[in-house]
Amino acid sequence: MANELGKRYQCVTCGTVVLCTKAGEGSATCCEKDMALQDARRLPSSD
Q1: Which domain covers residue 16, as residue numbers?
Q2: Is residue 28 part of a domain?
Q3: Which end of the chain is more exposed for a tag (fewer CB within 10 A), N or C?
Q4: pLDDT digits 0-9 by tens, 20-44
Q5: Domains in the chain: how many in total?
Q6: Is it the case that residue 17 has pLDDT exceeding 90?
Q7: Where on the phi/psi map is residue 15: left (φ > 0), alpha (ψ -120 to 50), or beta?
């Protein structure tokens, strides 16, 4: 799995969050496990 520029990854074990600033091959790891891609956050409505 390649890291995607601008995406956030979160460790399922300790909760650490990282922001990918340079795309590339490989995967983000923490606590000896691959980090999960974090879901996009909803923006507040501008009504």
Answers
A1: 8-37
A2: yes
A3: C
A4: 998 889 888 999 999 999 888 888 8
A5: 1
A6: yes
A7: left
